[in-house]
Design goal:
By secondary structure, the chain is mainly α. The protein has one domain (8-19, 27-189): TerB-like (Orthogonal Bundle), CATH 1.10.3680. It is built from nine helices and no strands. The protein has helices at 8-19, 32-45, 57-74, 82-95, 102-119, 121-131, 135-149, 157-170, 175-189. The longest helix is centred in the middle third of the chain and has 18 residues, at 57-74. The protein is globular and about 35 Å long.
Length: 190
C-alpha cells in the first residue's frame, strides 16, 4: 500500500527541527545533518581539485551515516515508495539549506537502497555505527531518524526496532531511543 502524502506543514516543521542543533549541543551553529551536509556537498563539488580544500572526509562520512540511519528507519516496513522518498528528500534538502543538491541526495539514496538490498539491515546498522564515533553523534542519528519517522505518522513498532538496533550498535541503551522519540514528540508539538 502506498503511503499518503504528509501535510506540507508537517514536512516543513520536521525540516526546521532537523536543521536545529541537537538539544545537547551547546553553541553549535546547526545540526550535525546540516553541518556535515555542507562537507558532503563540498566533497562532491571538489572531486577534481588537487589542492587542499578544507574538506573534512569524516564529516562527509558522518552525513552519509546520518542519512543512512534515517533511511534504514524509513525503509523498516519493507517499502520506501515514491511518496516516502519525496517526503524524505524534502525534509533533508530543506534542513541542509541548499548545501546538498537534489541529485546528490538521490544518488546517495539509490546507493543506500542497493547496499541495504545486498547487505541487509543488521550489516547496514553496523556500518552506520562505524561512522559514528561519539556519543553526541549517536544521539543525533537517533534524533534525526526519529524525526524522519514522524513524517509517516510517528514511530511504528518496526521503526522502533531499527532505532533500538542502532542504539545497541552505538553502545547506547535503548532508553536513548525513548529519549529521542520523546524529544521529537515534544519538539513537533511546539
Amino acid at each position: 500500500m502506498a503511503a499518503s502524502v504528509p501535510p506540507k506543514s508537517l514536512l516543513d516543521k520536521v525540516a526546521t527541527k532537523l536543521a536545529e542543533p541537537a538539544p545537547l549541543s551547546s553553541g553549535a551553529s546547526g545540526s550535525i545533518l546540516t553541518i556535515s551536509g555542507a562537507q558532503y556537498s563540498a566533497q562532491q563539488r571538489d572531486e577534481d581539485l588537487t589542492m587542499p580544500t578544507g574538506f573534512d572526509p569524516g564529516a562527509a562520512a558522518l552525513f552519509e551515516a546520518v542519512v543512512e540511519g534515517a533511511y534504514l528507519v524509513a525503509a523498516a516496513d519493507g517499502t520506501f515508495d515514491d511518496v516516502e522518498r519525496g517526503a524524505f528528500e524534502h525534509v533533508v534538502l530543506s534542513a541542509c539549506n541548499g548545501k546538498v543538491g537534489e541529485d546528490q541526495l538521490r544518488a546517495l539514496l539509490a546507493d543506500l537502497a542497493d547496499l541495504y538490498a545486498e547487505d541487509g539491515l543488521d550489516r547496514r546498522v553496523k556500518m552506520v555505527a562505524r561512522s559514528v564515533s561519539r556519543s553526541d553523534q549517536a544521539h543525533e542519528v537517533l534524533r534525526v531518524s526519529a524525526l524522519i519517522a514522524h513524517v509517516s505518522e510517528g514511530v511504528s513498532d518496526v521503526e522502533r526496532q531499527v532505532l533500538d538496533k542502532m542504539a545497541v550498535a552505538f553502545g547506547l541503551s535503548t532508553t536513548a531511543v525513548d529519549d529521542a522519540v520523546s524529544d521529537v514528540k515534544r519538539a513537533l508539538s511546539e
